[in-house]
Amino acid sequence: MAELERDQASQAVRIITTGGTIDKIYFDARSQFEVGDPVIDHVLEEALVHLPWSVEALMQKDSLELSDADRQRIREAVLAAPERRILITHGTDTMARTAEAIGDTEGRTVVLTGSLSPARFRSSDAVFNVGAAFAATQCLPAGTWLFMNGRVFPAGDVRKNPETNRFESL
């Protein structure tokens, strides 16, 4: 039993949330969407994920509002995490830019993901993306990766194509 607990602890995933569409909610009074509280705990609990994880709600911003200082803050949170496996939820518009800005992960496996529609929507890519990205943190080698549209991309070799609303290799 102790060996199983040690194995699970070594598989622990730190989840850093930064906002983006995945966490958006609709405000009727304002007739607009805004970034709300992170939903990832709910998504992983519904998926019956049994490996340990912890959530660090770093910021609640649309990715178009992220600055270079915000990207540096994300990088610092990655490097400060005691876990070697890190999942970052992020808005899709500038996710590739943040993945590049993370740079050297010092032996950590970092996977960024998001969604094209809010996780709170019945029809959303969020659940699939979170589940696959969570699994990818356990399977990929150290480095920074991005998971979207059923594909894994290395940082620096991916962009969002706004015409097709899909991610593609450079």
TrEMBL record:
Pfam families, per the entry: Asparaginase (PF00710)
Catalytic residues per the record? T21 (o-isoaspartyl threonine intermediate)
Q: Where is the L-asparaginase N-terminal domain?
A: 13-164
What's the superkingdom here? Bacteria
One of the entry's Gene Ontology molecular-function terms is: asparaginase activity
Q: Which InterPro entries does the entry mention? A: Asp/glu_Ase-like_sf, Asparaginase/glutaminase-like, L-asparaginase_N, L-asparaginase_N_sf
Q: What is its EC number?
A: 3.5.1.1
Keyword list (alphabetical) reads: Hydrolase
Q: What is this protein called?
A: Asparaginase domain-containing protein
Q: Which organism is it from?
A: Natronospira elongata
